[in-house]
Amino acid sequence: MTPESSTESRLPSLRRARLRDLRHLLLFAVRRLVALLVTVLVGVYLTIVVANMGGQVDELRLVQIRSEVVETVRADPAFFDMPGEERNALVERQVALEVERLRLDQPFVVRSLDYLQRAMSLDLGRAEQMHSDRGSREVRDIITERLPATLLLFGTANLLVFFTAVFAALRLSRHYGSALDRTVIALAPSSAAPGWFYGIFLILLLAFLFPLLPAGGMVTAPPPENRLEYAASLIRHMLLPVAAMFFSSIFVSIYSWRTFFLIHSSEDYVEMARAKGLPSHRIERRYILRPALAPIITSFLLMLIGLWSGAIILEQVFNWPGLGSLLFQAIGHRDTPVIIGGVVIFAYLLAATVFVLDILYALLDPRVRIQGGRR
Amino acid sequence: MSAVTQRRAWRELARYPSALVGMTIILLLIGVAITTMVAIPYGEALERWRGGEMWQRYPVNASPAWMDRLSGGNAARTLVVASRDAEIEEAAFPGGRRLRIPLEFDYAYGGFPSEINLFLNAEGHARTPFVRLLWQAPDGREIPLGGYRIGRQERISLSQDRGLERRLGGLAPHIGLLADHTGQGEQSVTPAAPEVLEGRYRLLLDAVLFDEQAGLEAELVLYGRVHGVAGTDHQRRDLSLALLWGTPVALAFGLIAAVGTTLTTLVIAAVGVWYRGWVDAVIQRLTEVNMILPVLPILVMVGTLYSTSIWLMLGVVVLLGIFSAGIKTYRAMLMPIREAPYIEAALAYGASDLRIVWRYMLPRILPVLIPTFVTLIPTFVFLEASLAVLGLGDPELPTWGKVLNDAQSQSALYNGYVYWVVAPAILLMLTGLGFAMLGFALDRVFNPRLRSL
User: Residues B64, B237: contact at Cβ < 8 Å?
Assistant: First the structure.
């Protein structure tokens, strides 16, 4: 075979391979999406069952229906000069009608499916006492208002921790056994404490003893008009919580990555590359990092999931107006619709995280591309 | 694990100083926990932590005494002067008696007390007795503190007496009564920086009782600014009680949760690997569902809707932890073990499924599990603290997290009660560090892939 003919045949085959990869990727994505949807469905259903075990959801809706009915009856001028008893009877009749209309008299199994459908479509109902800053009583509005703050804070902190940890670990695994390396190992147990714990001390130190940074909140009050000033104020307020999260997880991440890279760099093919005399940065990128990428992504995912939960208390400690402190306020008000809505949103967030990382995983892992995710 | 490998593991572990430090901390904590449980029984601890009467002779928000002494201060401790130790003059008159009770004490602290209360106890009187109070300072000044009718149990809050405060020139009574007034009239004391007049003070109780038999007991309490090893909180409760009792609670919670989650997870992973097929598939799917369930929000929900009892929380934590992500890891570890020849041998002699899972597969990966298990404990200890900080702590039990929660709700850092936050935080950190240090060292001993590094 001549060299020309081989290149000619390789080009279309390459394109065909790309197409095949894309098809497999799509298939994989759809399959994962369906699987995750089912997962969320089951998870939310479990949440509803837990929440309704004490009859809470039913009671809640009954109270809501009653108050709505009373309100309409009172506001209707047609009933203004109705005697009290008659009006009460009317309210009772209306409530019974409404209960029947909403099928509250049906067994729980049937109704729970109704709740599930509402929760999945994010129809989260109305809050009992809380309202969003704009004044809406819809749980959905309350939650969407708080979501960006949480995403901003935790996105920043997580990405920072992740990239710092991976690059620091690469450096350390290169100078394995050095003083710096041993210091990091010795510091790793400090991550036993969660971020909010360090947050308390950072506030004590940098906000009260040496008042350099604000103790809490998201921007100064009143918020600055100028966009640049707004951003600057935001960054100043973010410094402490991000530092708390960073400090609480950086050492253990570096430690585990370093161990991971050390294990990978003692593989035979890496030794082989070294023996060939390849430059060390090339070995690092092509021989150590590339095959290790998939597990890196997995552990990033696990870290993200862990941090979503930790968010609640950290936000509370730093008075950060995110989902976590919303949940905390909802506990204070015993505002059940908001609490359940919060759980549903968290479930969706976790599922979204898993999905995004699944796709990344598929892009990185050639086995998924080639076999279409079949195991 | 045989005795030989066990001994070798110990020897290897002893090579790591961090493991030794961690073990020392853990043993110390266990010692404290056991001593506490023996010294203060469970019921008594709950009863006392509920607060109320029994703490009324304790100061409010006093800092630890050692903190003040270390910084060279001489802040006031609580002084209790009881009538039992005083020489009572008694004079009978028709239809009753007249008592003169001098309550004397030496005051030599550098600072003023935080509060002054007088507790009077007059049992079994048909007609309410009457008492007149006179304060005698070492410099000879005499300040009449007014007269009181006393019920069966009376508490006279001298610090709250606004009239007395005005007479003392605007100084709070617990400051004005003990301040140095030399060379100045009673009214002209500068309220800016009053100084303590040291010496022997006397509170003279001049009581008229309309009864031949029944007596009168008096207790003058000068509340200190410092108290004990750990200080007190806003409800006058001694914090050392909560800090001590928090130790067994934290250890028990961490240990039970760690055992409950790791063991069940391991067994389930092994069952899935052994039976394969739909059992494995169900376990895998359940794990994926569980990964999406947000643990803390669910705990919050359960705490809000049902009860915040620490045992219910523990149960939910274990339940949510059963199908945790750990199953995937254990599964990966168990897969090659399933195909090992010794399992085939066990099958050949007719071992049952259960026996193979329980006696052949599980023991193989138990050593790998130990480090994970040890490092998991502090996670759960902090989880309990986190729930308490969120206000979902056990309603009755004193725990470290609840102390932190109290401190936060009383803005302790803002008000300068640093000890209130630092003491439970240090204990939490110690627990976390102890287990984490041991766990990391164990990881390096037991994890075969790390041993060569």
Answer: no
